[in-house]
Amino acid sequence: MTASDRTSRRVETPTEVQSDPFDSLWRFFSSTKLAIVLILAIAFVSFLGAFIIQAPGSIANDPIEYGRWLSTIRGRYGAITDIYNVLGLFNVYNVFWFKSLLVLLIFNTIICTVNRLPALWGPVFSPRVRVNESMFRSAPIRANVKLKQRGGARPTKDVAEAAFAALADRRYKVFSEEEAGVKHFYADRYGIFKLGTLVTHLSLVILMVGAVMGGLMGFSDDNVIIPEGKAYQVPFGENFLVRADQFKAEFYQDGRPKDYWSDLVVIDGGKEVAKQRIRVNEPLEYKGVRFHQSFYGPAPVVEVKDKQGKVVFSDITPLASGNGSSNVGWIDLPGTDLTFLLALNAGGDATSPLAVQIYKGQVPLGRDALKVNETKSIGDYQVTYKALKQFTGLRVVKDPGVPVVWLACALLVLGICITLYFPRRRIWGRITQQEILLAGSADKMVNFRPEFDKLVEAIRKV
Amino acid sequence: MAQLSAFLFALALLGYFAASVLYIAALVLRNRRLGEWATRTLVVVFGIHGLGLGQRWVESGHLPLVDLFEALSFYSWLTIIVYLLIERSYGYKAVGAFVTPVAFLSIALASVVPKESRPLVPVLESAWLPIHVGISFLAYTIFTMAFAVAILYLLQERELKVKKPNALLYKLPPLETMERLGNNAVGIGFPFMTLSIATGAVWAEQAWGSYWSWDPKQTMALITWLVFAAYFHLHNVVGWRGRRTAWLIVIGFASVLFTFLGVKLFGQGLHNFI
């Protein structure tokens, strides 16, 4: 036989055994080793994501903004930036290969679970009652109870009944068979809780369903800005408005916020249908859409008159962007190509001056600073700073997957608790006229010997 | 009154040091009486520390679990009570020689971070604060026990292997028992870790409108959970035992430390109070 013969043989043999590709795929996905590899891979990639700076979610789909962001972090990561970028490590929790790992793990979970079903079912509902006699001679935990022959032998049936009662007292479930005057039995405690693993693994699948539901049927906007007195049209096909009547914030002496809230009114079909004061931990929910208090900032009311004294603009403007030292907002003056830039120092209040600059494209046409109730002429316009109000920043979310996720969480905790807190104990026995043979084993968590000895003591008394 | 809690805290710091020395001395010198004194000292210090925590609660008007100082302090206190309960039911003082120094290190670290109590930020004004934080710390603490036992196991196993039994080995429980203790600690801690993540998700959903946002703290908690999930599969299904599972527990505990402190010390995120 030549070398090539041998190799071709070797190749052929396994294909003959598992010629069905579905079969080999099933085998691949039903392996616990794959699950462990996937779990550790997901843990590792998650770890990378926690320590590599992640691109803000809002710019991930905007190539220009993303490019700008990339150049700001190049200073930190240098040449490796491009490698990270190609691998998707700056947005690692959304990159396709990370999501694929998650999907693979769930797929693996389903197949593993289905594969294990018969092996789980059997010992719970139809356990093997009759075991090989050698078990009673070799099991690490075993006992031999000699039955006293006082006044003739008791019927095996009576002995068995008493022994089973002793087991039942200790919450053991007993299965028994009789053959040729010999009673075989199997008893377990918390045996049914072995099915907890099904609950645990099923809950992970449900969790995934909930997450996918949120992704497909929900929406979210992290950056909804409503100046006081203004209303916001809820997008994504929802036809109702939310008006912010008032925003208030209180601060501690060290400047940190103590409490802040918005008074929101829901307007559906022209009618006020709901009213609520929302805080960080108290969102408003209407028709499955939730409004979370997220951020806030100043919003000056400004009036602009043209040369003829006609009011061309009078409204509230949220100063929602800025660089940390000041809050900035824009007015695009209607009917012109002019932009009014408004800026207030960070932490500024109604006593601080409001800086106003007029731009035509990139060209500045004038600038000045105003106090509340002051009017100044800037460029060709008369600008009045009428009042300082606030805007409220909300996160608006609709996520129909949330109840499913909570169901999954509850099942997950339940499944894990019953698996870990109720370890199974098992006892096999054989009752004859002369003796009771016992062998026991338990899950690794249990220090079974003392328990077993007590049980044997109880059976000895029967 | 702020001096009172600071004074009690300083006493606890000294007391944990003394208890650590006693536990280690009892183990190395194989001295039973030293061991008894170690336990007595620890019980007293635990009481003083508890008073200190209570006093701080009174002073600040909120649960003393909202900054790094309070977290470290509470962690060492909870570690001690869980350890004392285990010592009571199992009677192995050897574990104390590893757990007490961990509690001491934690409170020593607390003594060098800013201590002044600050009022609550709005997001922490929630009934979830005691639930979520209490459960999380229980998980951390129970995993600390698993870690201490795993380290003991590894030391003891090495000594057995080189067949040079010395003082340490003499007083330790049998390897098999140590292994079961470690495995049980992980088994008891894991549901708490799961609940910690779940209650955190419920709270995040309420406060920020998203049950999961891959915040570094959430992510590290998930990683810890995954490491222990891998542990159970390797232990229960693949059949890993002994040294290898002990090392897995050590890795899991490293992840716990990162979850507890790493995010605060190295990262930024929504969860930036502790």
Mean pLDDT of chain A: 87
Q: What is the straight-line distance between the termini of chain B?
A: 25 Å
Radius of gyration of chain A: 37 Å
Counted up, domains of chain B total 2
Helicity level of chain B, as a percent range? over 70%
- Oligomeric form: heterodimer
Low-pLDDT residue spans of chain A? 1-16
Chain pair sharing the greatest interface: A-B, 48 and 47 residues
Major sheet description of chain A: 6 strands, antiparallel
Radius of gyration of chain B: 19 Å
The number of helices of chain B is 9
State mean pLDDT of chain B (0 to 100 scale).
88
Shape of chain A: elongated
How much of the residues of chain A is beta strand, in percent? 25-35%
Q: What is the percentage of strand-forming residues of chain B?
A: under 5%
Provide a concise account of the structure shown.
The complex is a heterodimer of chains A (462) and B (274). With 462 residues, chain A is of the alpha+beta class. Chain A has helices at residues 3-17, 21-29, 32-51, 63-77, 80-87, 96-125, 135-138, 156-169, 196-217, 402-421, 448-460, and strands spanning 141-146, 173-179, 182-189, 219-227, 231-233, 240-251, 257-268, 271-278, 284-286, 289-305, 311-316, 321-322, 326-332, 338-345, 354-360, 363-370, 374-378, 381-398, 425-431, 435-442.
